[in-house]
Design a protein that fits this description.
The chain has 148 residues and is an all-alpha fold. The chain has 5 helices and no strands.
C-alpha cells in the first residue's frame, strides 16, 4: 500500500498544524527556562543568568505571536508546491520540541527557537525557497545539538 505524500503547508489545516507546533515549542521553551531558573539556586554562577532567561522568554513570546498570526489567517498562508511532505515537517518540529525539553543548554534553546522563528517568518512571507532553506538550517542545528 502506497502512502499519499501531502505537501507541507498546502492547506489551512496544515498551516494550523505548524501553528500548533510553534505553540508547543513555546511551551517547551517556557518549561525549560523555568526548570533552569529553579536550578539556578543550586548552581550559582553556572546557572542560567537573568539575561539568558529574559532572552528565552522573549523567544517564547515571539513563537506564540507567530502561531497566533498563522491561526488567524491559516488559509492565507497556505503554500502550494512546497517540495517537502507535511509528515517530514511535523516530525522535524516534534524533534525540535523534544530537544528543547531534554537539553539544559540555553544556547541550544536559543538556536533552535531562532530557527523556528525564521521558519515562521518564511511561511508568513509565503516564500517556498526560504522555507526549504530554513528547514535545512533547523536540521543542521538539530545535528549540532545532538553532537554535543
Amino acid at each position: 500500500m502506497s502512502e499519499r505524500r501531502e505537501a507541507a503547508l498546502s492547506s489551512a489545516m496544515r498551516v494550523e498544524q505548524l501553528a500548533d507546533s510553534l505553540s508547543q515549542a513555546a511551551s517547551a521553551l517556557h518549561a525549560a527556562v523555568m526548570r533552569a531558573i529553579r536550578k539556578r539556586a543550586s548552581l550559582g554562577e553556572a546557572g542560567i543568568s537573568q539575561a539568558e532567561a529574559q532572552a528565552v522568554f522573549a523567544l517564547e513570546v515571539e513563537l506564540r505571536q507567530q502561531a497566533n498570526t498563522l491561526y488567524a489567517d491559516a488559509a492565507g498562508h497556505a503554500i502550494t508546491g512546497l517540495d517537502t511532505a507535511q509528515r517530514q515537517l511535523s516530525g522535524l518540529l516534534d524533534t525540535v520540541r523534544q530537544r528543547i525539553a531534554r537539553h539544559d543548554h540555553v544556547s541550544h534553546w536559543i538556536s533552535l527557537a531562532t530557527g523556528l522563528l525564521n521558519l515562521g517568518r518564511a511561511v508568513l512571507a509565503r516564500n517556498p525557497e526560504r522555507i526549504l532553506a530554513t528547514l535545512d538550517t533547523v536540521r543542521e542545528r538539530l545535528q549540532e545539538v545532538a553532537s554535543e
